[in-house]
Design goal:
heterodimer; A: alpha+beta; 4-stranded mixed β-sheet; 5 strands; 23% strand; globular; B: alpha/beta; 8 helices
């Protein structure tokens, strides 16, 4: 069904401008599309859902990597409840109860829950699928705090 | 550094006006003809500091271009508003805190080349992404020691864990390790099997579907024909709502409105079937 309702005319026009292609050193004969699956019939992809969950569990078991799963809570394509459902299937324990966090003059940024094995879940209040586009301030805040290993 | 890939001008910005550089070009896998377009954005922090993280960003799909991440989401120059025709400086660019590597993957996506027309899967994409990352390090060895983070959204929920797993296995075998620290996944697809049910539950919870709309067929069996019917009805009803941002604007092309009459007919049929809900549906509409 493609990516309904999303405005991409500007980026499509920009990236298909021949001069921009030259500046980016890309093949000028390639027409840029947002998603190949919708525009290029030769592009085919087969997904393996059980494999992804298995690998996610494997990574958690190593207990080596910090993993942040965040969801804009106004997205109905990959809703935050779907991530919650995945979290319930993973073998992790809750280490910090569901709580609000605050950004931008102490306003509610969303909610977060801590898990064992360096895993954290965060919602971003009012943001859609493209969180950094919908709420630049909160997205950068979460990103920076995570890189620095600091709480939010 | 790959001088030939240095971006000197990104309309309307002259890169000499900034304290960081952007590189754009191709990274190739040696054992195939596939080449992957990448954009590497240096951090605004000290470029010589090996403690500055390197973030590999992947948009989802599968098959969607990471240029969305670069020019709409986390890059230094973005279309700030939906209707903007020119790029603006992004005050909240993630390169304020890290180097950013945008990769168009798998090949055949965005500006990347896929001359083989192969069918991709999650495992193969992960293998290719590891090879491309190694190619990046061979071209930009000064970033090999920097802490690496994998980030992305949507179907990158599948791409990222699998790439992380490949990196772990590579590190277990090789002396020269990739300094992977962590990953950040936004609205990530972790399991396509239960995603349709989550979508329906979410739509009901947010009153995008009528209160009495019955999704039990999908809760029982997501692959059943009854569930297909439920999904179709839900699709018809929510067709004018931006699914990616339910409170946001829904943009349509002129030609997408040609099916207006068909849509209205479907809505009427739906309301006839569920006529006890007509009033509620109308109110919500």
């Amino acid at each position: 069904l493609g990516v309904p309702c999303v405005q991409i005319d500007n980026i499509e026009n920009y990236l298909n401008n021949q001069q921009v292609k030259q500046y980016l050193h890309v093949d000028e004969s390639i027409q840029w599309f947002l998603c190949s699956k919708q525009h290029n019939k030769q592009f085919k992809y087969v997904s393996d859902p059980p494999l992804v969950m298995k690998v996610l569990q494997e990574l958690l078991n190593y207990n080596l990597y910090n993993i942040l799963l965040y969801n804009g809570d106004a997205d109905s394509v990959v809703p935050w409840i779907d991530t919650m459902q995945a979290l319930q299937k993973l073998q992790v324990t809750i280490t910090e109860e569901w709580r609000p966090y605050y950004v931008k003059n102490n306003q509610l940024g969303g909610y977060t829950q801590g898990y064992s094995n360096k895993l954290r879940f965060v919602t971003v209040r009012g943001a859609g699928h493209m969180v950094p586009q919908n709420d630049r301030i909160t997205a950068f805040y979460l990103f920076n705090q995570t890189l620095l290993g600091q709480a939010f | 550094l790959q001088i030939e890939d240095l971006v000197t001008y990104l309309p309307p910005f002259n890169m000499s006006d900034f304290n960081f550089s952007i590189y754009s070009g191709y990274l190739s896998i040696t054992d195939s003809n596939q080449s992957f377009h990448y954009v590497f954005v240096q951090s605004q922090l000290n470029n010589l500091d090996n403690n500055v993280p390197l973030v590999l960003w992947l948009n989802g799909g599968p098959g969607c271009s990471s240029m969305i991440g670069f020019l709409q989401e986390i890059g230094p120059f973005v279309f700030l508003n939906d209707d903007d025709e020119t790029l603006s400086y992004n005050e909240y660019s993630w390169n304020r805190a890290a180097h950013l590597l945008f990769l168009e993957s798998p090949s055949g996506v965005g500006f990347s080349h896929n001359p083989l027309n192969i069918t991709f899967n999650d495992s193969q994409t992960a293998d290719h992404n590891l090879k491309v990352l190694q190619e990046f390090y061979s071209n930009y060895p000064e970033y090999q020691k920097n802490p690496l983070w994998l980030a992305g959204e949507s179907y990158a929920g599948a791409y990222i864990p699998l790439l992380a797993q490949r990196i772990k296995k590579f590190n277990d075998l090789e002396v020269a390790v990739i300094n992977l620290q962590g990953m950040m996944i936004g609205n990530g697809v972790t399991n396509l099997t239960h995603l349709p049910i989550s979508q329906l539950i979410y739509q009901k919870q947010h009153q995008l579907l009528p209160p009495t709309f019955d999704i039990s067929a999908c809760e029982k069996n997501v692959t059943s024909e009854d569930c297909e019917d439920v999904n179709y009805d839900a699709w018809i009803i929510t067709k004018r709502i931006n699914p990616y941002d339910i409170y946001g604007y829904c943009y349509y092309e002129e030609n997408e409105l040609e099916d207006e009459e068909e849509w209205i007919l479907h809505m009427k049929q739906f309301m006839m079937i569920h006529n006890d809900n007509i009033v509620k549906v109308t109110n919500h509409d």
